[in-house]
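>> received
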Amino acid sequence: MSTEATVIGGGVIGLTCALELARSGQDVTVLTADPIAETTSAVAAAIWFPYEAAPADAVLRWSTESAAVFACLASDPSAGVALRAGTVLERSAAPDRWWTPAVPGHRVIPGEELSSGVTSGVRCTVPVIDMGRYLPWLSRRCEAAGVRVIRRRVDDLAEVTGELIVVAAGLRSAALTGDAPLVPLRGQVVRVANPGLTDWLIDDDNPAGMAYVVPRFEDVVCGGTAEPGVFDTAADPETERAILERCYDLVPELRGAPILSRGVGLRPTRPSVRLEALPGARRIICCYGHGGAGVTLSWGCAREVAALAGRA
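>> returned
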């Protein structure tokens, strides 16, 4: 007999958890305060990269598992996933490459082969996920698996029925569980028409501010910012101008590309991802605090949630 499971949160973590629970035989309902297309997940550049997520051992495990799933999905045109080569630029004499064990075939490039001020770089091929395609694809998979998605804001877990509850509500998760508050890490991006780029670049330590250029299909995501504690979701024109200048410096071919859209997302950060079952009479599983790596960790975390649900 299936368990009645309720997932709170309609972003990439909540939907992926819902799909994995449904595939394991649970009767699943998703409660989401926002339309799926308006969640923080919809703003993400969504290149596979474990940004601002800890602890390292678990993050490597979850991200490796997710990368394998995304690699398979790259063969499905409707999923919006592509495997793309690119470079993580390094500006330190002793760069921290803790994430590289999750990327087979990566190689280190000396700074003289890269742009000015860069000491080295890591060249690798990783999944790039177009969230405008991927979230609808994920929603369809959930629907096909029998998952119900309901627009409803939850302010208290006592309001929620079901034998199992999964809290995956991004920034609002901590208030529901009584955890220490999550801190938003504001990220602003601008999307421009793709002039034919395929390679991505990440330059987190750029002295002018973090910069990344992520080509998808028709567009290129240019970013970005990482502003802790900032809740403002309005795109700032001056910030946008600075982002574009940093990206133009990295990739001159982008200069003059038409702006297609812009977005701001609040990454839900905490010292470590919280993925655990809470003690007590009710079966509650926490899955939140993924920082800037929600998409990157989504499949690995969702499968762990399903495994925890099956042990009870």
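>> The longest helix spans residues 56-73.
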